[in-house]
Amino acid sequence: MIQKKSDFPGKVGFWSGEKFHESVLRVESSVRLSDGRPLRKRVADAYRPAFQDISLRMPTQTLLIALDGVDFNSCRLAQAAGAAPYLEELSERLLTRPIPFEPTSSDDAMWATFQYGAGLGEHGRYFWKRDDLSRKDAFRYCDFGEEHLTPFWLEEVFAQKNIAIFDLPKMRLAKPQRGFHLANWLVHGRYGTEGATSSPPEIAVHVRNRFGEPPPSPCGTSKKSFSEAEIETFVGHLLQSIDMKLSAATHYLFQDSWDIFMTSFKELHCASHALWEHLPNEPEAFISSPFHRLFQATDKAVEKLIKIAGPNCKVCLFSPSGMSANSSVTHLAEGILLEAGKQTTPGLQRLIKGEPYHIVPYNENSLAVRIRWRSRKDALCSALVKFMSQLTLEGNKPVFERPLVSQKVWAGPAAKQLPDLVFPLRAGLGRPETLYTATGETITGEATALRAGNHFGDGFCYLSPAFHEVLPGPEIRLEDLGRAVLSV
């Protein structure tokens, strides 16, 4: 099929090889944006994203694309292997900045930091489940209790901005004053069980009916390995997901003149969790890996969206964290805390009843702990930090990085919702089956199956030079990114 606009004076559309399909705009009265304006919709048989006439587009001031969970080193490897030529072009003509990684952060925490423009101590979301302090050993789910927090796009200074939040991950649904918000469609780790939701709600209905439901994905499983057939099926579903997101995002880019249009691609995040062991270290081997096709498809999708947005559109392309081989001591956690309780000072043991510590939900590559006895919190924190710092592997190698104490590291009104102590694992730790205490005791346990890859290392950002004044430093804090990009 080729574009044949010039053969049909006064008409715009595409030539299918058999007939000319005229592109028609009409008002779809049943679908309206949050400020009441009707959503302009192209008739279904004329909609073909690959052949949309770019002269029809309405100007988009800023395009923000999140490449969720895309590791910078893997991205550079894909560029060297020829799988991501457009991303390589962007790296050469845009500003490249690291996004520092907090070693205890789950992606749940990172996306809350981005949405609210606030640190962990201010928003309080550490994991997709969190401690419910009103009930012992019970947990809240997802973004429950965040209704009092304000996403950066709802700040008064941006009230007149026309904003599309088109399916960013792990976002609490929050209606812009102008525009719309779609959530939980094609994202990694959807919150809740409802599937795609939106404000206004008609957007999600339209997206699900027209573009479909998410293909299946095994990225949340702890399967040790996948067969070639399973990998092929998995990659096929991820490629389908990229096409669906590109088609839908293209459709909505054409619907209005956006001050900012935000969207994301989650497929390399899913692949990195499940297939990290299939990611080679050399460009020559990269070509035959499953990541080659995924980077190719993502690269082409990014290129199409940026070109549709137009040459004057400012671009922000980012990933909030890197990825690495996964590590865990989950299978040893109960034994670790049991031994830690035994080795508290005799004075503390007389003052408390039962076990002093308990594990709270956490990302695999760290250990998160809450103190049961709040009246002795400081003393118990100090005792546990000392015990954990002396835990070693065979050969006297330490297990944990420097521990983080919430009340010291994450200041803010929501710090009490966070674990009291977080112990990041040493990089490359793997899944040890034996640990040694300072007193010569051993803690043993059989390693369980685990996702191959996990969040680790700095994220990155490609930025149009226009953003240099609002983000001038050598690195970008995630809590500053959204507000700064929208302000230009």
Structural summary, described in words:
- This protein has 488 residues and is an alpha+beta fold.
- The protein contains 14 helices and 20 strands.
- The chain folds into three domains: 1-56, no CATH class; 59-326 and 456-487, 3-Layer(aba) Sandwich (Alkaline Phosphatase, subunit A); 330-444.
- 30% of the residues lie in helices and 20% in strands.
- It has an eight-stranded mixed sheet with strand order 6-20-13-5-12-9-10-11, sandwiched between helices. A four-stranded antiparallel sheet has the order 14-15-17-16.
- A hairpin with a 7-residue loop joins strand 7 (129-131) and strand 8.
- The chain is globular.
- Mean pLDDT is 83; it is low at 1-29 and 41-52.
List keywords for this structure.
disordered N terminus; 8-stranded mixed sheet; 488 residues; 20% strand; Alkaline Phosphatase, subunit A; alpha+beta
